[in-house]
Write a structure and sequence with these properties.
single chain; alpha/beta; nine-stranded mixed β-sheet; four-stranded parallel β-sheet; 27% helix; globular
Length: 500
Amino acid sequence: MEALNKAWCANFWSHTIYDWGDVVPAVGYGDGISDAKCVVSGLQMDYRRFQSQAQLACYTNERDAIREYDATTPITTNLMGTFKDLDYFEWAKEMDVVSWDNYPGMDTPPSFTAMCHDLMRGIGGNKPFMLMEQTPNQQNWFPFCKVKQPGEVRKLSWQAVAHGADTVRFFQMKQSLGGCERFHGAVIAHDGTEESRVFKETAALGEELDRIGRRIMGSRIESRVAIMFDWQSYWSLEGCVGPTTGFNYPNEVHRFYRALWRRNVPVDMIASTTPLARLSQYDLAIAPALITVLPGVAETLEAYVADGGTFITGYMAGIHDEHDLVVPGGYPGKLRRLMGVWVEEIDALAPGETIEVHGGTVDAKGEIVASIIHREGAERLATYGGDEFYAGHSALTVNAYGKGKAYFVGTPLDETGMSAFMAPIIKELDLKSLDTPEDVSLSVRYGDGGTRYAFLINNSAADKRLCLSEFNGGTELLTGTVINDLIELKPYGVDVIALR
């Protein structure tokens, strides 16, 4: 009990526990402030861990019951991308194959959907995953449920394959006549006909997958960049009462991911507790908003950078330990020596408020928070502008540490700024990427015998034309066309090109 009171800082507001019966979950009739926040933040973190582990125990109990009668059939359950309540890295360890449901909203950027696919591949150790569910037309749970444009579902399906899926499945086959999902899209709608646009598009997609899918199955994604997606930081960051309510953890991960996706740089999503032996396989590791630094993580990151790795983190990083207690001695806590900075204060910016960031190739705006940084060995890359008292303070820094470098991003940069910040790092590390027009993405899967499968996807409703001489001589598998300089993509068009 003494250890519990210490871990939860229970003397705050007289919450010291004297009897185990005094422990109440972090809910409204206890110390819960909302579904995400609690007066005793350590209680909230432990309750979230308990919920994730308890539901995982339910899954493993059901799995083991099946295994008594079936020793070989793979067992899975459908996950949901960046779903907050369950630590999917722990769940994936108990699943024979990872599967998930992809339901992007009408305003979801294609880069965010790509990140979710990479996350689902990442939790399973970068093995192929299953696209368990997607809708062949409208979704059901948004305020406004748009119909999918012609070709859009095909594009979404091939995007999943491009990022590591070995299956493409749908919910649902036939539309229900009643119940709360009766307007959810289906292959066979309420009209019961095979003459509908959706049925014909789904059948055509199935024919494509059947024709070339077996060639692609089992091929892999090869990445030299890793991004840490940390459910502990997810819970902690969004559970903070201050300095701002402006953070959405998946959006902060996407802020960094998008800059790489736009340059067609492949990314693996990893846990923050990834062992050094595996982390060292990557040239670049990024830990967005890593507010919770679990035991051993700081030491692993120091060893990784000292041996030549490049590491990026920044605002809100390193503040908490595993109990959601602030690490004393100044931000970013156990990462302070590695990053070569001391963050004295964190200024919160109101919704719509921004702060200028200037330096080198970066001419950008930051939002949500601004870290007021003192350099302790790090080099300044950019400074804050504007009329705040900390104008002229460092906004972006880099610290030489052993054979490697550690970059600190003091404020959430806008898309242009993050792209400009990442560009010289991508160039310095020679992270090979091919330029494609706006809204056209390129992903590559590697098969046996040196075969590569390049997926060019038009994520827009406009025609796109591009020339990629690197693909000359390759065969577009869906049409049998041999590539010769010019590639034309129709709205939501997809090319799958076999290369050697």
